[in-house]
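Let's study a protein:

===
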Amino acid sequence: MPTEGLNRQPILENEQLLLRPLHPDDWEALFAVASDPAIWEQHPMHDRWREDVFRVFFEDALAQGGALAIIDKAKDQIIGSSRYQAYDPEDGGSVEIGWTFFATRCWGKGINPAVKRLMLEHAFGSVERVDFRVGETNYRSRIALENIGAERSDRTELTRYDGKRVLHVVYEITRDGFESGPLVR
């Protein structure tokens, strides 16, 4: 049964990973990961590898209050970040999980599904639905979402970046879908 509210900055962990609230002193380690242009090549904000652009992203993550650092426990090293955003308690509750990125050396190693499992398990203690907003042409992220059981909804969002229109599509996982989906233990 859902509990009241959602702690958007929990400490979550499994054998391999620790997710904890992002701190201002994580800047150097997280920018070392984010400065790889390959991470952002399909992302609508494809220049986020630049220090000035990532600084805005990092400061926003801290200000929003839902950002988590993702740490490889064996190496005691930050390997990425994710966020809980847009929490809405109405109609059973929903939250967005997103803004996720990992060091390229972590790609294809099962890190994303492990992180999403931890975050979804936590979220579904408080909400009925989790949303994921992704740039329409970010096929790497869209495939990753489909692989964890997210389904594309009919919702979209149009924003602007660098003077251009950017279409985001919205994927979702419901509590029931999660409990019968590919991330169930």
Notes: The CA atoms of residues 80 and 102 lie 4 Å apart. Helices lie at 27-34, 37-40, 51-64, 111-123, 139-147, 175-179.
